[in-house]
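Structure tokens please, single chain.
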Amino acid sequence: MSGDALRWLTGAVILLLVAALFVAMARTWRTRTRAQTAAVPPVPVPTGLGPAAGSWDGFTVATTRADQPLERITAGGLGFRGRGGVTVHDTGVVLHHAGTADRWIAATDVRGADRATSAIDRVVEPGGLVRLRWTATGAAGATDLDTYFRFPEGDAAALAALQGLTTTHEHPHTAGEGTN
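Here you go.
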């Protein structure tokens, strides 16, 4: 076998290995998303919510399992970092995430809100992220989640509005929890 043929064969084998790696990654992502959909189903925004207490735009950094900032939730468009934000109503929160349908979180499912410094692959200054703690209920039962936001402006007001939901509604999941 000549040197040129060997180089072509080596290049083809490497190319096939890289392609197989990408196929495996895509299949793993789809499998993970399918498995999580039963635990974190999309909830459409109800009509007739009335006036909002406030709306804040910025970046949705990640959604993870509660207190597991490296365990990414991929279901329902929650898997990617991107433009997003929240609109807070007396009855709950509308999550906005670019490229996906808005998601409703009823106030009774909000477990709290506080500040965080890191989530998955994003580390910022101490307290630079707003963390919304909530519970999704699906076919797999209740799953406690944390969604992290980065608001360039008004993060204190957004945090206060989100925390206001937990002071006006009963939350059996929050007994004994503090803020970080």
